[in-house]
From TrEMBL:
The keyword Signal applies. Gene3D superfamilies: 3.40.50.2300. GO terms for biological process: amino acid transport. It comes from the Bacteria. Pfam families: Peripla_BP_6 (PF13458). The lineage of its organism: Bacteria, Pseudomonadati, Pseudomonadota, Alphaproteobacteria, Hyphomicrobiales. Residues 24-182 form the Leucine-binding protein domain. The keyword Transport applies. This is ABC transporter substrate-binding protein. Belongs to the leucine-binding protein family. Keywords: Amino-acid transport, Signal, Transport. It comes from Hyphomicrobium nitrativorans NL23. InterPro entries: ABC_transptr_sub-bd_PQQ, BCAA_transport, Leu-bd, Peripla_BP_I.
């Protein structure tokens, strides 16, 4: 597994949300264990190695070395630009890079690569999943609050697209500026208690407050502090995610328990994405009864491939951009609320393709 150490990233707002040191890695290890459970009967053995680096170029060099040593499948927890460097460095090899963390749309569209598969949902998938539920609830008028970072603005763009797509309306959009260093100062909560209601005054009538705060640096301040009592959704309050520790559906309880026994903690979304990536390789290996990298890659690209992944239906990869089709959970910090796609959102091929960029919309040409 290739992990880019992001030293410049601020810690999340809550101490409860600080990522564990094995975030993603533990999920990949569970996938290896599951693959070997089946592989034992087919005389197949799977191993996991890990490389970490804060320097993108050094990380890419380390991964290329590992591939040359005989590790053809790369589970990558890295920034979008690092992922592209990695994919380009491996383009002439029989290798697949699994993106388990980056939600950036351009990785699936203008900058797509044929040797990259995305088990992490894209921003548009997450935004569409949330918007479908808000439409189902008839919460049609949104007040959108956007943070100052490029990631915040990118998720806000995905939310705007989803609102237009499903007939919802953004009645007001506001930029929230914040001082990260003051949040843990004595008396800081008193400033926030005054700042948020003041920030929200004078807004048009709205059904819901939608937060775009990917870095989790201010969004959690908004529930219970708005000027008018309204639900808070987006990246805080009610939010979309690939996985949640409270999921019990479709065999989820035993899956969560197995992970807790292994990692001594709860499963996080990147753990799930990494598990799904590793299990994709294992599923292809068991179906083809082969360990040849090219054979497995071709099978994963074919319409014969599907994966059982504790989401109520078989998951497949989109043939036009390598994105994993999957239901998206809509959750609060402590409980699973619903799953999208929502009832009534239909599609001629797969209802899962109502989430994210569909084939007629794609700008990806690498898979053609």
């Amino acid at each position: 597994m290739a992990r880019e150490i992001q030293e410049d990233r601020l810690p999340p707002l809550s101490l409860l949300d600080i990522p564990p040191p094995d975030d993603g890695l533990a999920g990949a290890q569970l996938g290896i264990d599951d693959n070997n459970t089946t592989g034992r009967f087919l005389k197949q053995e799977f191993t996991l190695d890990s490389v970490e680096n804060a320097n993108a170029d050094a990380l890419v060099a380390d991964v290329v070395k590992k591939v040359d040593e005989g590790f053809p499948f790369v589970v990558a927890d890295a920034r979008a630009e690092t992922l592209l460097k990695l994919a380009d460095a491996l383009k002439d090899k029989d290798t697949v890079v699994f993106n388990v963390a980056a939600p950036d749309e351009d990785l699936r569209e203008e900058n797509c690569r044929v040797n990259v598969k995305h088990t992490a949902p894209s921003r548009t998938m997450l935004a569409d999943a949330l918007a479908q539920y808000l439409a189902w609830k008839q919460w049609r008028n949104w007040l959108l609050v956007v943070g100052p970072t490029p990631e915040d603005k990118a998720f806000a763009d995905a939310l705007k697209r989803a609102a237009t797509r499903f007939g919802l309306k953004i009645v007001d959009e506001r930029m929230f500026e914040y001082e990260p260093g003051s949040r843990r100062a004595d008396g800081g909560f008193e400033q926030i208690q005054q700042q948020i209601p003041s920030f929200m005054q004078g807004a048009p009538d709205h059904d819901v407050v939608v937060i775009a705060d990917e870095g989790e640096l201010f969004g959690e301040y908004f529930p219970y502090r708005t000027w008018i009592s309204r639900p808070v959704v987006g990246t805080a309050g009610l939010y979309p995610t690939a996985w949640h520790p409270a999921v019990e559906l479709w065999g989820g309880t035993q899956f969560q328990n197995r992970f807790q026994r292994l990692a001594k903690r709860q499963m996080r979304p990147i753990d799930y994405n990494a598990w799904t990536a590793v299990r994709s390789v294992g599923e292809a290996a068991s179906r083809t009864n082969s360990s040849d990298a090219k054979t497995l890659i071709d099978y994963m690209r074919s319409d014969k491939f599907d994966l059982a992944a504790f989401k109520g239906q078989k998951l497949t990869y989109r043939s036009w951009n390598g994105q994993l089709r999957q239901p998206i959970f809509i959750v609060t910090p402590k409980i699973h609320v619903t799953v999208s796609p929502q009832p009534g959102f239909l599609h001629e091929f797969s209802e899962l393709d109502t989430l994210g960029v569909d084939r007629p919309e794609t700008k990806c040409t690498a898979f053609q």
